Amino acid sequence: MRRTFALLTAVLATLALAPVATAEAATAARTGCGRPAPYRTGASTDTTLQSGGLSREYRVHLPASYNRFRPLPVVLSFHGHKRTSEYQEQLTGMSALNAIVVYPQGLIGTDGESAWEGAPYSAAADDVQFTRDLISTLERQLCVDSRRIYAAGKSNGGGFVGVLACRMPDRIAAFAPVSGAFYPQSGACNPPKRAPIIDFHGTADTTIPYTGNPAKGLPALPDWLAGWASRDRCRGSVSWSDGPVTYQHWLGCSLAHVKIDGLGHVWPSTKPNNDSATPTVIDATPIIWQFFLTHPLH
Predict the structure, then answer these.
(1) Which of 268, 256, 247 is nearest to 199 (CA)?
(2) Bridge-partner residues for 258, per DSSP?
(3) Cystine design at 78: which of 153, 254, 260, 293 (Cβ 3.0–4.6 Å)?
(4) On the CB side of 112, how many CA atoms lie within 13 Å of its CA?
(5) Domain range for residue 221?
(6) What is the DSSP letter of 215?
């Protein structure tokens, strides 16, 4: 499995549509650089901003290595239905990344539980605008590499990442839904540019079935991926398997899929996590991070 991870990393690097810039001056918007950070380094801070007339909550983790003169990537990590920003932080382990990691909090929806735009049970709020406002706030406050802003999410949060891929590929460089709930309430998807995506899903997911759920309008994963292959003008795909894991990537674009046989509605991790006490054969977080690193905005 380690050999396969190394091979996957190499393949992900080839998916980048442009070379990775090395000069910080070329990659970063510096509006927040040089300013004292309003958050503690090496820690997570809960805070709010105003968006659409509402007070919106989010959690920010600044790495201990944060330097106000050196731009860092930003990873937005969206929790699932009924979950919290704190749960998402613990679930993904993304706060260990050398990045500014932000865990937004969804609003209470029609079923009395937290949710994101695009689901039939979500609140009547503009979460896409909240995401835009959040990015703008981070760029003002922190030394952010504006070409390296990314979005990942689980379940309903993964579905919302799909919404962002449709509507914000001009601001967010790459997207990683895990067990994504791609409801039809998300609306039409007409992205202004190609959206690099890596997707994870287990075949034993009974919450968001791999084969879809017509009663809820949920697509089968192969159909959802085919839609993105068409939008991103891909040229066919290749795949290979290692045990229960099948890796698939499309040619001529930046679209990848990881299918895990027998995996339920969980964030893949080789250690027990909030979703499951049973380890998985792969870790989604480092694979996502490698994909993100090879995909700056261009």
Answers:
(1) 256
(2) 200, 247
(3) 153
(4) 0
(5) 2-17+26-293
(6) G
Helix 127-141 to helix 156-167 angle (10° resolution) is 80
Tell me the pairing of strands 100-104 and 54-62: antiparallel
Half-sphere exposure of 119 (CA within 13 A, CB side): 27
In a 10 Å sphere around its CB, with 0-12 CB exposed, 13-18 middle and 19+ buried, how is residue 86 labelled? middle
Query: Does the global pTM surpass 0.70?
Result: yes
Quick check: 178 and 258 in contact, CB under 8 A?
Answer: no
C-alpha span between 187 and 32 (Å, rounded): 34
The residue whose two tokens read 């919290």 is: 84
Looking up residue 248, the CATH number of its domain turns out to be 3.40.50.1820
Lowest mean pLDDT among 2-6, 28-32, 68-72, 221-225: 2-6
Count: domains in the chain: 1
The Cα 263–Cα 261 span in angstroms is: 6
pLDDT, tens digit, for every residue of 245-275?
A: 999 999 999 999 999 999 999 999 999 999 9
Strands (E), the chain: 43-51, 54-62, 72-78, 100-104, 107-108, 114-115, 144-154, 174-178, 197-202, 237-242, 245-250, 255-260
